[in-house]
Design brief:
- The complex is a heterodimer.
- Helix content of chain A is 76%, strand content 1%.
- Chain A is mainly alpha-helical.
- Chain A has a single domain, classed as Orthogonal Bundle (MetI-like fold), CATH 1.10.3720.
- A two-stranded antiparallel ribbon of chain A has the order 1-2.
- In chain A, strand 1 and strand 2 (45-46) form a beta hairpin.
- In chain A, helix 7 (156-164) packs antiparallel against helix 8 (169-198).
- Chain B is an alpha/beta fold.
- In chain B, helix 4 crosses helix 5 (131-144), helix 4 (115-125) packs parallel to helix 7 and helix 5 crosses helix 7 (164-177).
- The chains are: A mainly alpha, B alpha/beta.
- The A-B interface holds A 155-168, 171, 175-176, 179-180 and B 66, 68, 71, 95-103, 105, 107, 109, 111-113, 121-122, 124-126, 171, 174-175, 178.
Chain lengths: 273, 266
Amino acid sequence: MSAILFIAGIFLFIGSQGMEFAWNRLSITELLFGDRWEPTADPPRYGAWPLIAGTAWITAVAMLVAVPLSFAAAIYVGEFAKGKQREWLKVLIELLAAIPSVVWGVIGLQVMGPILQSVFGLQSGLNVLNAGIILGLMAAPIMTTIAEDALKAVPESYREAAEALGATRWQVVRKVVLAHARPGLSAAVLLGIGRAFGETIAVLMASGHRLMPPGSVFDSAATITATIAAELGEAAVDGDHYQVLFVLGLVLFLITFSINLLADWIVRGRRRA
Amino acid sequence: MVSPSLHATPTARDTAPALVTVRGLGIRYGAKVALQGVDLDIRRNEIFGIIGPANAGKTSFLRALNRMDEFVPHMQIDGTVTFAGRDVRTIRNLYALRSHIGVVFPLPVGLPLSIYDNVALSPRLRGERSKAVLDEIVERCLRRAALWDEVKDRLQGLGSLLSGGQQQRLTIARALSQEPELLLLDEFSIAVDPVTTMRIEEVLKELRRELTIVLVTNLVQQARRLADRTAFFLGGRCVEITPTERMFSGGATDPRTADYLEGRFG
């Protein structure tokens, strides 16, 4: 209940800050699909498509990195590792989850950037790929924890029954454990997507923050969150620019909200069928 | 009453080579001894009943037969168990061993798969891919477990949504799909209504023609109805093994068995 109040409160606050402008002078079509974000030009252009596209690209790359990594880690820790090794791995994963995002940003800027630059022969190593990898690595530990919880929730009797049928450990995992843990694993992916969407400082540092829709993973890009963080301090309070950033926050809010709804719907639908 | 047909050819069966031989079997969980000094043979195509009060070591005994010890931390098995002439302790490929031994647990475990996939799982693990063959196996096993008529129209429904009695028959069908040589039943009727129990018992009598069954039960009368020979376990020891008919007609060799059968303890 308090969660609902909080969400409604946040929604109202963001809405009220951006509403006047959004209501009177902003074209929603331009905001969502206009491909030029030039808030300080004259006349200013508030097309957020570059930011939305940048966010989507980077999140997609992050999930391509994080899903295999975290699921493999969760399966290893939950189903194969034993005793001390298992405990150590769990501690290690929790430590990884606790690395501050600015540290990841520095890794993206100082380590990953030069590596990508020389490996792919690019002008700049700060791009969608860099930000995606960094975000993927950031999201993987928490996704591993959630995925491992989902595996742990599969009753031991299922594993025992399947092994009694002569299944190997790996067959048990593939045929029985994953089937039963699917809703929990979806939740892990969603949490990861939420993390990737919402992450700000690391992406700002690793993505190159170029205000254009990326055409490939080697292009620099900007995300919604990074733009808000970078520009809110410079925008005049209650000015158009200031307000449109709040509208962007609302867009972010609506996107994550609909992802959650969609996921919920998918999970429920599967269960019914 | 035990029908005479149950013991039609005792002499032939007595001389047949044992499917399972157990010598000096002891099972410990850490410092706690669950079973000690068990020697017995399980003959091919017999129903071997094991009765006894709780904590007698009955379930531990079953675990030792198909090497399910790795699921129980600190479970330690001493002595030898041979299955079809091979020492199960030295079998490298445990999965192959287990695929020859079907297990039915006390509480039915319908895997979170469709009814069809539950029964087709074991054949698929063996590498069977043909839809026609799988269809045939699923139908045959469900029929033999007396479940086919109830589920034939909803084979794609989740196995875990069936009623307790149906799920238990599903697990029997699943065990049969392994085409096991040995079927281990661990108090299968705990979560099953009496009518279904009787139907499953009929199925088991039929199955004896094709395979060997070890029936652990805390229902003394169930052992009487089904088992050819019955072992009485008490406090981690095998007190006696006697042909069921004799045991239940006053021929128990140990006074404790007679006390248990008459309900004086347990």
